[in-house]
From TrEMBL:
PANTHER family: ASPARTATE KINASE, ASPARTOKINASE. Residues 270-346, 352-425 form the ACT domain. This is Aspartokinase. It catalyses: L-aspartate + ATP = 4-phospho-L-aspartate + ADP. InterPro entries: AceGlu_kinase-like_sf (IPR036393), ACT-like_dom_sf (IPR045865), ACT_Aspartokinase (IPR054352), ACT_dom (IPR002912), AKii-LysC-BS (IPR041740), Asp/Glu/Uridylate_kinase (IPR001048), Asp_kin_monofn (IPR005260), Asp_kinase (IPR001341). SUPFAM superfamilies: ACT-like (SSF55021), Carbamate kinase-like (SSF53633). Belongs to the aspartokinase family. It holds the Pfam family ACT_9. It is an enzyme of class 2 (transferase).
């Protein structure tokens, strides 16, 4: 038996009973002969409560101190979980992200892992302990400041440790039984996927699927670490995410033509109106956005009006970055030369994902027919080899997801999807 890394989300350790239930599952893995490293998130809504508290004290808290505050949640979880494991008669040691050797860049609140040096973790498990690591956090390489990895950062911590420790698998425990063909909160008849490729999972994660974070899947693909997404509330097999199909029983699991439907209502749309249609204008716009350290998603440029020589450029970005983007563009309005800006945060994105699109020409037509039949109007379109995404009104998103899900035969014969915790992480 080799080493396994297990990650437990906030809903799994939301209270004392949850922590004790998780401790029993961890001990069971240890009894089965595995070396076990555990990455744990903050309990329940602890992180949100800490954010609210910080905003009451300071409307714009300093990044360094904000990170120091937020990492307290995971430290509480790791210590309590280690206590619960010891109470079951097994040795456990807890480690902060910095003690575990998670080295990051210096960007507070959304740092990126640049290296993992898990010497203390390896020594601990080799000595027979279960190592409990606080997720979501690390230490900056240059200033040695505590940093946080942003929302969902515990998933990335777990995969990074699994890669550094050469683990057999990284198990991500959440409050659903695996990755489903759609969000089970929206589509009650969503099916659990037995196996999905890294590529399809990356597209689903980037398109709004909340079960796995995009950075986590990208890290796993880079180091070829199999991920097993499963529920901490049941003993059911979950979803395997890997480079090659895995075998369940006596035959391999094949990937479906369509893996699933994802949606995202956390984005906004900015339209830059009256942009001169000449070389360099788009570059100036997106250089301004880049300099403000804002990530964008979809981009559409309209056809230039012959009479004016002007065009409009629309793009989507996280709602949380909307104000910053508007301010940056307005500040550089003279240099870019546009007329005005339009901001719209009442939009939603629906994405259809599946490697089978490359060899099935009818997929695009069926997708748009399903949206049309549901009375959903499309504002933006973006595609890749294995994904089609559209932007619609936010109010239409749920109906659109259900319509597309049904049109592609993804509905289960029964209400299969169960959400145990309620948050999806």
């Amino acid at each position: 038996m080799g080493l396994v890394v297990q990650k437990y989300g906030g809903s799994s350790v939301a209270d004392a009973e949850g922590i004790k239930r998780v401790a029993k599952r961890i001990v069971e893995a240890k009894k089965n002969g595995h070396q076990v490293v555990v990455v744990v998130s903050a309990m329940g809504d602890t992180t949100d409560e800490l954010i609210d508290l910080a905003e009451q004290v300071s409307p714009m808290p300093a990044g360094r101190e904000f990170d120091m505050l937020l990492t307290a949640g995971e430290r509480i979880s790791m210590a309590l979980l280690a206590m619960a494991i010891k109470n079951l008669g097994h040795e456990a040691q807890s480690f902060t992200g910095s003690q575990a050797g998670v080295i990051t860049d210096s960007v507070h609140n959304k740092a990126r892992i640049i290296d993992v040096t898990p010497g203390r973790i390896r020594d601990s498990v080799d000595a027979g302990n279960i190592a409990i690591v606080a997720g979501f956090q690390g230490v900056s390489a240059d200033k040695k400041d505590i940093t946080t990895l942003g929302r969902g950062g515990s998933d990335t911590t777990a995969v990074a440790l699994a890669a550094a420790l050469d683990a057999e698998v990284c198990e991500i425990y959440t409050d659903v039984d695996g990755v489903f063909t759609a969000d089970p909160r929206v589509v009650k008849k969503a099916k659990k996927i037995d196996w999905i490729s890294f590529e399809d999972m990356l597209e689903l994660a980037a398109s709004g699927s909340k079960v796995l974070l995009h950075r986590c899947v990208e890290y796993a693909r880079r180091y070829n670490i199999p991920i097993h997404v499963r529920s901490s509330f049941s003993g059911l097999q979950g979803t395997w995410v890997s480079s090659e199909p895995i075998e369940q029983g006596d035959k391999p699991v094949e990937q479906a033509i369509i893996s699933g439907v994802a949606h995202d209502t956390s984005e906004a749309k900015i339209t830059v109106v009256g942009v001169p249609d000449k070389p360099g204008e788009a570059a100036a716009i997106f250089r301004t956005i880049s300099d403000a350290e804002i990530n964008i998603d979809m981009i559409v440029q309209n056809v230039s009006a012959a009479s004016t020589g002007l065009t409009d450029i629309s793009f989507t970005l996280p709602k949380a970055e909307g104000r910053k983007a508007i301010d940056a563009l307005e500040k550089n309005k003279h240099g870019i030369g546009f007329d005005s800006l339009r901001y719209d945060d009442q939009i939603g994105k629906i994405s259809l994902v599946g490697a089978g699109m490359k060899t099935n020409p009818g997929v695009t037509a069926d997708f748009f027919t399903a949206l049309s039949d549901a009375g959903v109007n499309i504002e933006l379109i973006s595609t890749s080899e294995i994904r089609i995404s559209v932007v619609t009104r936010a109010d239409d998103v749920n109906e659109a997801v259900r319509a597309v899900h049904t049109a592609f035969g993804l509905d289960s014969d029964s209400d299969e999807a169960v959400v145990y915790g309620g948050t999806g992480r």
